Amino acid sequence: MASFLTLPAPLQTFLARFPLHTHPPVPVPVRFPLVKPTLWIAPPRSPYQSASSPDLLSADVECLKWQAYIALRGLTDISVRWDISPEGALDGRLPNLHVPALADNQSQLLPPHNIPAWVDSRVVADALEGYRDEKARDESHAWVSLLEGPVHAALSLSQPPTSLLSTLFQSDSKKSRSIGALLNPPPAPLTGFSSLFPSFGTNITLSAVQTRYAEAIAALSERLGQDRWFLGSENPTALDALVFAYLHCILHSKDTTRIEVTRLVNLVAWERRVRAQVQAAFCVAS
Q1: How many CB atoms lie within 10 A of CB 72?
Q2: pLDDT tens for residues 108-152?
Q3: Hey, is 173 helix, strand or coil?
Q4: Which one-letter DSSP state was computed for residue 26?
């Protein structure tokens, strides 16, 4: 239907000098085409130490936990990249998993909390999550609390301190939890209940953190014993992935924190065996 609204003739003559041309879309070049699942992680300690056997394990315990989880669930041939900062990741934290397009599904970029569902879609899921019974699965929650409590606190204290300037400009996503929030029971306040001033701060001593950490490492060693996997499981579980991440980061720290682990032969041998399995599951993205 012709429009009843027409432009004046002088305006039509003027606009005719500027015709509208359409062009086909310009293809965007892809530097790294997504061929296989790619995990974006924090950089390894020495990523280019050897061309034949590069270090592919992240120096960040959170990223390494997910690397171990993917590898110990039986997945292999997963690419890794570390050329992005946490600020550019989903939810402001690494790792992120980039899944290539499959059939009618488009490629997806997954945050950490969506990685288990993707893994379950690739391998057979167990109702008990790999544990031998419900009692062992319930016990695993206590070990997770122990690792994410005093062990994580000791690992955080072993890291080199950051400068005040970098702390001021650090994003909220990169700021870790305080040491007091990691300990259970929580530490006492700096001021007593009988003080004239309101309670504030936390009274945390290095010796108290190290004592809890040493007890936790000794308990881990005793619970593992000569078993192949923790809690006597026949196959690796999420707890094994978490234990490996902490043991690997502690053993490769330059602090005296590593001494507690190096004294226990079964933990050192277990970490070395699991490290080889996790490392073999990843390759550098090309």
Answers
A1: 21
A2: 899 999 999 999 999 988 888 899 999 999 999 999 999 999 999
A3: coil
A4: P
Sheet order of strands, 282-284 included:
108-110, 96-99, 38-40, 78-81, 282-284
What global pTM score does this model have?
0.80
75 contacts 123 by C-beta, under 8 angstroms: yes
DSSP-H helix ranges across 35-99: 61-72
Task: Give the tokens for residue 218.
Answer: 């000794």
Burial of residue 17 (CB within 10 Å: 0-12, 13-18, 19+) is: exposed
Rounded CA-CA distance 58/64 in Å is: 5
Place of tokens 């592919």: 56
C-alpha 52/C-alpha 16 separation (Å) is 65
Between CA 223 and CA 269, with CA 237 as vertex, the angle to 5 degrees is 50
Q: How far is CA 112 from CA 109, 144, 146, 203, in A?
A: 10, 17, 21, 33
Q: State how far the Cα of 285 lies from the Cα of 254, in Å rounded to an integer.
A: 29
